[in-house]
DNA sequence: AAATGCGACAACCGCATTATC
DNA sequence: CGATAATGCGGTTGTCGCATT
């Protein structure tokens, strides 16, 4: 017995939305709100659509103040730096970019930014079928790709230079972190306001990442790195054979399936040192170039929008007192941020 | 001009989490 | 407190249009 379908698939229309459907949905929600029940909404307004489809359409396209396309360089930097930090947590990343949706960012990453980082065209879906048979295997592939991405990220954003690529500005390259789990062994809090997209950046340098921050994430990684030594010996991409992220070392391990019980993967040994190196060298370098990494230690805000509390030392307070991560249980790992 | 390849993006699917009964 | 429903999220797929062969 599987899960009951959310709607009657047979009587539900699929595919692109027509202007009429858009108008109906938009008009109704603007007038009445969602009523707190997406499943019932399509029946109310006479749409032959699944409630989930309505929700997606509203959140991604019909909602006011949605921006599409034309990502700025600053937005790209934010996306990249957050991706480095937390992986493919698109909803969290979207929360840092007002007007952007997770779907939009995800698409933008997959079609543009990833390639920008990789510096070459990624194989198409059609070509992907062959990839598994030809690629480097396991750890060797990982380290190979890892090195490539480090260089490519650097060159793509001018984070650093090498004498050989001609794009140099004569600064030392930041360290691309080695492979390891960045975050604690459970996902970031999933708590996001419905309209998280418009909820966040109070200050461009105070990024709040689902309650974690770049700084706290780095600190977390530092203190949990030991617990993730095993991750260094795993290659979920190879193990699953399904993650497509050539060159994105830690990133290729961040699919939700491969992360079951594990945080976003980023870097390896002494995350503490390497991630800070990476983030803040980029920052100091980027300062002259428009910046890649947010330039100050971020503040910490609980996902529920309650107190904004400074720096790392309060993270454990929040996690232990007000944030239930669910099944993982607080005893599963040691935070250690403020130890 | 037709076929094919590819990029971009909208939408769907299924799982995890949360809320409610 | 368990079962069920609803919602949120991320991965994947489908489709369209443009570029290339």
Mean pLDDT: 52
Helix content: 40-55%
What order do the helices and strands follow?
A: HHHHHHHHHHHEEH
**What is the end-to-end distance?**
47 Å
Number of DSSP E strands: 2
Radius of gyration: 21 Å
How many domains in all?
2
Form type = elongated
Helix/strand class? mainly alpha
Oligomer: single chain
Largest sheet: 2 strands, antiparallel
Largest beta sheet: what is the strand line-up? 1-2
Strand content: under 5%
User: Which spans have pLDDT < 50 for at least 5 consecutive residues?
Assistant: 120-152, 159-339
* Number of helices, where a helix is a run of at least 4 consecutive DSSP H or I residues: 12
Domain HTH myb-type: 9-62, 63-117
Domain Myb-like: 9-62, 63-113
GO molecular function: DNA binding
Subcellular location: Nucleus
């Amino acid at each position: 017995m599987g899960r009951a379908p959310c709607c009657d698939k047979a009587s539900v229309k699929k595919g692109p939305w027509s202007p009429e459907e858009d108008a109906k949905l938009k008009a109704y929600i603007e007038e009445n709100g969602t009523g707190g029940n997406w499943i019932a909404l399509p029946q109310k307004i006479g749409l032959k659509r699944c409630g989930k489809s309505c929700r997606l359409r509203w959140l991604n396209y019909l909602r006011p103040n949605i921006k599409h396309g034309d990502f700025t360089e600053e937005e790209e930097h934010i996306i990249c730096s957050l991706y480095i930090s937390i992986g493919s947590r698109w909803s969290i990343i979207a929360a840092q970019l007002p007007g952007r949706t997770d779907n939009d960012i995800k698409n933008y990453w997959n079609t543009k930014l990833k390639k920008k980082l990789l510096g070459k065209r990624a194989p198409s879906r059609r070509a992907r079928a062959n990839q598994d048979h030809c690629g480097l295997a396991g750890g060797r592939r990982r380290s190979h790709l890892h090195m490539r991405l480090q260089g490519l990220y650097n060159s793509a954003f001018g984070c650093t230079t090498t004498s050989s690529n001609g794009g140099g500005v004569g600064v030392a390259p930041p360290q691309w972190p080695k492979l390891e789990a960045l975050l604690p062994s459970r996902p970031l809090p999933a708590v996001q306001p419905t309209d998280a997209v418009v909820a966040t950046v109070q200050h461009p340098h105070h990024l709040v990442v689902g309650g974690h921050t770049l700084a706290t994430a780095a600190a977390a990684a530092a203190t949990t790195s030991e617990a993730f030594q095993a991750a260094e010996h795993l290659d979920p991409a190879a193990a699953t054979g399904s993650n497509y992220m050539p060159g994105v070392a830690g990133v290729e391990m961040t699919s939700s399936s491969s992360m079951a019980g594990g945080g976003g993967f980023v870097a390896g040994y002494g995350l503490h040192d390497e991630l800070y190196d990476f983030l803040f060298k980029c920052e100091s370098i980027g300062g002259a170039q428009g910046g890649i990494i947010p330039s100050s230690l971020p503040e910490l805000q609980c996902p529920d929008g309650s107190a904004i509390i400074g720096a790392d030392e309060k993270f454990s307070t929040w996690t232990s007192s007000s944030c239930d991560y669910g099944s993982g249980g607080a005893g599963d790992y040691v935070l250690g941020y403020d130890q």
